[in-house]
Design goal:
Helix content is 44%, strand content 12%. It is α/β, with parallel strands linked by helices and 545 residues long. The strands form 2 sheets. The protein has an 11-stranded mixed beta sheet, with helices on both faces. A hairpin with a 5-residue loop joins β12 and β13. α1 packs antiparallel against α17, α3 runs antiparallel to α4 and α15 packs across α17. The longest helix has 53 residues. The chain starts with a helix and ends with a helix. The N terminus is likely disordered.
Length: 545
């Protein structure tokens, strides 16, 4: 009896959970465009999990990102050209996936590439419109690596013309606006790539870095940018700016995504995701590069001190490093690399840190005539890797960032420190200027929850033929709907409501039948017990006599 009562209470809770919500949503919800998920909140791994679980196809992923590109790219002036084959390539990825599965985490996902890297069939303009008719006849080596990983080039990113400046990104295609404030500079020269990453125009963005051109725009737009060790990645197909300092590198929303991208760019020679350890800071020695630290204005310095407190709370030991910095950008590489490594050994540190920008993110006009970048003084001159990671925001919502610098070819230690810090700091930066374009109906979410739960089971061995068959049929119909292209069905909300209601109604009818049967059983038991009691009383009367 207690079990049956428990089932009845559970049923009431289930009906209360599903039916009222369905009714409210049916009356109040007016979908703009349906989507299965909010891609602005999803990592590379989560996108692939959504494909594996049947929530997304690669074609749909491409269309969702293209919709964002068409909605927001003009506002930011962050792209120069868009591929006309991306949809067909995504469809082809769906065919491959169905037949043999995906080949890796970048498979089928869109990439936005800085417009100084050759992509076969697209122009390499370097921000110069006079070059837009000259199409590349082969891919840059890093593009080959991305395509070998299954990624799809969806667009080219605007940049500072010929990658000349880190203070801004201005070209014949426009002035790239900051992801968080259109009146502010995106910085550069990979401004378009950094803004595209921050605005979720693609999950994979590629920039190039000569002096600071990946890390500074990444820092100004609240995303993660990695300058790898000089020579780690091939420069073939990259328009040279300063030979001896140029390199491509990933820009992404998180350290994890940047590590996944870098792994593919390096042709999987090293799996940098193995460095993603939340406990990596425990016992790590981290050096503060004092000259660059001292450049910071008070507001930036405050955020840097908060970041140091996070590092120490995670078990890191902080060491002051009053070392020289290099401002000889033409000849410094030869002597500064050995010097930097000597200082890292002398102070016995695993990584060093410094602000990405020593000042607030500036307006276009102010940024044009000033320089607040720290990125050019250490990593490019030493030929070592560096990653910029967000550390906070000011009152206006503009980001602050900090760089982790490591020894040459020690990206693993650098990534592990940056990742552990990122996880401990737990920021979730998201520009308000490029919100999600779509609504995910609550009824669809509930269908997804239903699919993850077991079907209602009968109590004990009791079963009621067609009544329980109705439960099975309505349950299967509900979960099967998720395997259809329901995101193209503008009546999906109403359809999902009907499916949920049918399932609940089938359970309700079954339970009432079960309850009625229970009442009969109880009445029969009570009648039999009454007869037994009557016989016992007669027997007792006989014995008394």
């Amino acid at each position: 009896m207690k079990k049956v009562l428990g089932y009845m209470i559970s049923l009431i809770l289930v009906i209360g959970m599903f039916v009222p919500c369905v009714r409210v949503m049916a009356e109040e919800y007016e979908p703009k465009v349906l989507a299965v998920v909010d891609i602005t909140e999803m990592s590379i791994t989560e996108l692939q999990q959504a494909v594996d679980e049947g929530f997304l196809t690669y074609e749909q992923i491409m269309r969702l990102y293209l919709d964002r590109i068409y909605a927001y790219a003009d506002m930011y002036e962050c792209l120069t050209q868009i591929s006309d084959t991306a949809i067909e390539e995504a469809k082809r990825c769906d065919e491959i996936y169905k037949s043999s599965g995906r080949t890796g985490l970048l498979f089928g996902l869109p990439v936005i590439v800085k417009d100084n890297l050759d992509v076969c069939g697209m122009a390499t303009t370097n921000g110069n419109k006079y070059l837009e008719e000259k199409l590349a006849t082969e891919d840059a080596d890093v593009i080959v690596s991305l395509k070998n990983a299954g990624a799809i080039i969806v667009a080219k990113a605007n940049m500072d013309r010929y990658a000349e400046h880190s203070r801004y990104s201005i070209s014949d295609y426009g002035r790239v606006n900051n992801a968080y404030d259109l009146t502010k500079s995106s910085y550069g020269s990979s401004g378009g790539s950094a803004v595209a990453a921050a605005a979720s125009l693609a999950p994979i963005c590629i920039g190039t870095d000569t002096n600071a051109s990946i890390r500074v725009p990444s820092g100004a737009n609240g995303v993660v940018g990695i300058r790898p060790t000089y020579g780690l990645l091939s420069r073939k197909g990259l328009t040279p700016c300063v030979v001896g300092r140029d390199t491509a590198g990933p820009i992404a929303k998180t350290v994890e995504d940047a590590a996944i991208i870098l792994t593919a760019l390096n042709d999987y020679k090293i799996d940098y995701t193995k460095a993603l350890d939340v406990n990596a800071l425990d016992g790590m020695r981290i050096g503060i590069i004092e000259p660059l630290w001292n450049f910071a204005v008070p507001s930036v310095r405050e955020k840097l001190e908060e970041a140091v407190a996070v590092l120490e709370a995670q078990g890191a030991e902080i060491i002051s490093m009053p070392i020289s910095i290099c401002d000889d950008w033409e000849n410094g590489v030869g002597w500064y690399g050995p010097y930097f490594h000597q200082m890292m050994d002398q102070y016995d540190v695993d990584v060093a840190i410094h602000p990405t920008l020593w000042d607030e993110v500036k307006s276009h006009e102010v940024a044009y005539g000033s320089d607040s970048s720290c990125g050019c003084y250490v990593a490019p001159s030493a030929g070592v890797p560096s990653v910029s990671v967000p550390i906070g925001q000011n009152e206006a919502g503009l980001p602050y960032s900090m760089e982790f610098v490591a020894r040459a070819n020690d990206e693993m230690t650098m990534i592990s420190a940056a990742y552990a810090f990122e996880q401990a700091k737990a920021l979730n930066l998201k520009t308000p200027l490029a919100p999600n374009l779509y609504e995910v109906p609550e009824t669809i979410k509930r269908l997804m929850e239903l699919r993850d739960q077991p079907m209602y089971e009968p109590y004990g061995d009791i079963a009621y033929g067609t009544l329980y068959l109705d439960i099975e049929t309505t349950y299967q119909a509900a979960v099967d709907y998720l395997d259809t292209p329901y995101y193209n069905d503008m009546d999906a909300d109403a359809t999902a409501e009907k499916l949920l209601r049918s399932y609940i109604d089938a359970i309700t009818e079954y339970r009432f039948a079960e309850l009625t049967d229970l009442r009969l059983c109880i009445w029969k038991t009570m009648y039999e017990q009454k007869k037994i009691n009557s016989v016992m009383r007669a027997f007792e009367n006989l014995t008394k006599k």
